[in-house]
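Sat 14:20. Reprocessing the chain from the morning session after the first attempt stalled halfway. Input below, unchanged.
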Amino acid sequence: MKKVFKVLPVLTAACASPLLVLLGGCAPSCNKCYREVDFSLEKINNLNDTKQASTNIEKMLLGDKSYHNGNYVIVFGSECSAESNKLFGEHGHQYEDYVNTNCMGESKFAEAFETIKTTYYNNLDFGLQLYLDLETLDEAKQDQQDWCDDGAVAFDKKWDSQYVSKAQQIYDTREYDVKKTYEKNKSFFDRVRNADYIRTDESAVKMRELVSYIQTLFTASVVPMAADNNLPFAMVWVKGVPQKDQFKQLNGSTCCDDLVNIIKYINDHQNDDNK
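Finished this time. Tokens:
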């Protein structure tokens, strides 16, 4: 019993709140995906022009008044989402590389960055963070094994029936296959046969876990986050209080204005006692 009581306080402290312990531990996150926008820069060209976030995302989700007095936005997105790339990408393609190209420099996000910097940076204490699903070409090749025709795959997409059937056929004929196709790549074919998630890279795994975690906190109806349908998705806090009626997808042609208006909302509600 003594050992149990020694462990519990450590776990609670690490996860920032006893509530998070009840939810199953700390919020999952991938370090490379969690970024902070630096408005001291003149412009933003790619993700290298942002900073590694130094905050605990679980504390931020609950509301952290120690960060910009609790005034902040977290925008979730993905390199492997055409909808997300309408904000962060140059062309709105299914895949755009946020790290190794300058697609962000020609994006709606860069446009919003400039407007927010000009209008609010010197007059309002606020923070803008990004949590972005990132996938390298090598990771895609490892997970897909040249089976996917569409290249970039959403973090929450599973192998569909046509691939499941193909993998099952390879499994069923394994004893007669002189090429030993199944034996050479058992783990891959078993994942496909089981209709598992296509992507197994750290970013995709942590993104799925984080979305599930957030939906446990706020419910799926409040945060209906799915790679193909609901990204990019913004969550807003004012004075450390989540503004659930302002949680929203940043949509297509209006995504720039949507993001600017969220910062305006924070600015306009600074005098509210309890929002």
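Residues 202-218 form the longest helix (17 residues).
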